[in-house]
Amino acid sequence: MKFGHDMHRVVRVSDAEWAPYFMQYKLLKKCIKQIKADPSSPPVAECCERGDCEKATMAKSAPEVAFFRALRFELQKSAQFFRQAELVLEVRRERVREALRQLQDEDRLGLLEDAPDRALRACVTYYRDLLLLENYAIMNYCGFSKILKKHDKQTGFTTRTQFMRVCVAPQPFTRYPRLMEMIREAEDLYRDIAAASDRIRGTRSVDPPPLSPSSSSQQLSTLGGVGAAETDALDAILNLREAASRIREGEEDPDAAAAAAAPRRLA
Q1: Over the chain, what is the mean pLDDT?
Q2: Nearest to 230 by CA among 112, 107, 129, 110
Q3: For a tag on the chain, would you pick the N or C end, based on fewer CB atoms within 10 A?
Q4: Distance, CA of 75 to CA of 141 (rounded, Å)
């Protein structure tokens, strides 16, 4: 299945407000086609014969300049959105914590009868959005790597390793320890809310299925967090986690290790 199709499915399952902030993979593919169709772009082999460096040759091609301008814009846009979304989720974490605190309060004055169910639903929805933001990070990271790989394959230039290391690697959606911490805490919050709900009802319900990113689609479906279409999309993105990890470690690019040993600046 093509990456662009997987990207489209993940955009559809995510919050509608997020859609403009996913990297525009199809737009960048069109930019690459324009490079190929530009008669002013000389073949790489011809450039090498003249002794021209890649950077100077690419700077002479208007479609090449347009591609990297668009690529940098998409990178800045994705990074800014990820930072903002992470801050919003931190606010929601405090709300879920407060719901748990009220359930654990011995007095429970003014607590609505359905407060335990509301708290559980709030926690599951919060957890789902944490996972979707992680998926956003994975899809965008993979997207930049894959579009650069496509660019290099079509043009003959070698830009992927350096751009990923210098420009993409420092971005907040490449490595996100704060988000992973919130995911782990949300799993604990869910267990604590379920236990507090049992105490309020005076009963011992069947243990709820644990929340876990490794089986997120199944758990969220069981708990009423998402429907069948959303579960299908989450399954697709879960399959990309391992691929994204390999890309980050340079295992999919045999030149990455050598490039990391001899770092260069990208102007």
Answers
A1: 78
A2: 129
A3: C
A4: 9
What pLDDT, in 10s, does the model give residues 3-42?
788 788 788 878 899 999 999 999 999 999 999 887 666 5
Give residues with Cβ within 8 angstroms of 266, minimum separation 6. 162, 163, 166, 167
* pLDDT tens-digit map of 69-97: 999 999 999 999 999 999 999 999 999 99
Return the sign of the alpha-carbon dihedral for residues 222, 223, 224, 225: negative
Most confident of the following: 77-81, 103-107, 160-164? 77-81
Report which residue type is found at 206. V
Q: Give the other-Cβ count within 10 Å of 141's Cβ.
A: 24
Name the nearest CA neighbour of 211 among 201, 202, 223, 199: 223
CA distances from 103 to 94, 112, 114, 191, 201 (A): 14, 10, 11, 13, 11
User: For the residues of 114-173, what is the DSSP string, one character each?
Assistant: THHHHHHHHHHHHHHHHHHHHHHHHHHHHHHHHHHHHHHHHH----HHHHIIIIITTSTT
List of residues 6+ apart from 158 with CB closer than 8 A: 54, 152, 255
| Token pair of 185 as six digits | 């805490």
CA angle 67, 18, 159 (to 5 degrees): 25
Q: Do residues 256 and 161 lie in contact, with contact meaning Cβ atoms separated by under 8 Å?
A: yes
Q: Are 145 and 28 in contact (CB under 8 A)?
A: no
Tokens describing residue 238:
């879960």
Q: Which two tokens stand for residue 193?
A: 């809310």
Task: For residues 246 and 99, give the distance between their C-alpha atoms in angstroms, rounded to a whole number.
Answer: 39
Orientation of helix 62-104 relative to helix 25-37, angle to 10°:
170
